[in-house]
Amino acid sequence: MNMYVGCDLGGTNIKVGVVDVETGRIVEVQSAPTLAREGHDAVMARMADLIDKVIADSGIPKAEIEGVGIGAPGVLDLDKGLVLFLPNLPGTWPNVPLVDTIAGRVGLPVYILNDVRAITFGEWKFGAGRGVDTMACFAIGTGIGGGLVINGKLHLGINGTAGELGHQTINFNGPKCGCGNYGCVVAYASGPAIAAAAA
Ligand SMILES: [Zn+2]
C-alpha cells in the first residue's frame, strides 16, 4: 500500500498526481487552472474535485490511497494544517484551514508542506539528489525557493520555514530585496533579476 496523491497548489495551475511513493511511479497526473482570483474557497473546492477526478481516472480504488500531500507556495502552520501566507495568490490566504477543508471533502488524510521543501524531498528520493545524505535544492522562478536535506533527513525547522536559500545575503552592499534585506541571492539570480541583467 504505497499509493498517495500529490497536489501542487500553484499560482497559475493546480497539479494532481497519483503516485507510488515506493518507486516514484506516477500512475495518473492532471492539472487545472488555479483561478486564484476567485478566492480560497473556490480554489480549495477545485483542488478537491481534481483530487477525486484523478483518483477515479487512475483506476486505483480510493480505499487503497493512503493520503494526500499538498505543496503550497508560502508560509504554513504544519501542526494546525493552516495556510498563513501565500504571497503569490490573491487574498494571501490568512489562517485558511487547508488540511481540514480538503480532508473533509475527499475523505482522506491530508498533509501540507511548503512546495519547494516538497520538491527537495522529491529530488532527494527520486531525482538529482538520489543516494546522497546532504543536499540543497534551489527552485528558480519569479523568486528563489529552497530546501535542505541534512544527514539523511529533510530539514524543516520551525513550521517548515528552514531552507529559504534565496534570501541568503551574498553582498551586504547589494540591492534591496523584497524581504527587506540587502543583496540576497534573489536580488541577483531570480528570473526577473537575470532578465534585467541581460537587458
Ligand atoms: Zn531577500
What does this structure look like?
There is one protein chain. The protein is an alpha+beta fold and 199 residues long. It folds into two domains: 116 residues, 2-Layer Sandwich (Nucleotidyltransferase, domain 5); 67 residues, Nucleotidyltransferase, domain 5, CATH 3.30.420.40. The protein is built from five helices and ten strands. Bound molecules: zinc ion (ZN).
What is the rounded distance between the termini?
52 Å
CATH homologous superfamily label of the largest domain = ATPase, nucleotide binding domain
By DSSP (H or I, 4+ residues per run), the number of helices equals 5
In N-to-C order, the SSE pattern is EEEHEEEHEHEEEHH
Write the CATH fold name of the largest domain: Nucleotidyltransferase, domain 5
Bound small-molecule species: zinc ion
Average of pLDDT: 94
Helix % is 25-40%
Beta content: 25-35%
- SS content category: alpha+beta
| Biggest sheet strand line-up | 3-2-1-4-7
Compute the gyration radius: what is it?
Answer: 18 Å
Low-confidence stretches: none
Secondary-structure arrangement, i.e. CATH architecture of the largest domain: 2-Layer Sandwich
- The oligomeric state of the chains shown is single chain
What count of structural domains?
2
Number of DSSP-assigned strands = 10
| CATH class division of the largest domain | Alpha Beta
User: What general outline do the C-alpha atoms trace?
Assistant: globular
Q: Specify the biggest β-sheet.
A: 5 strands, mixed
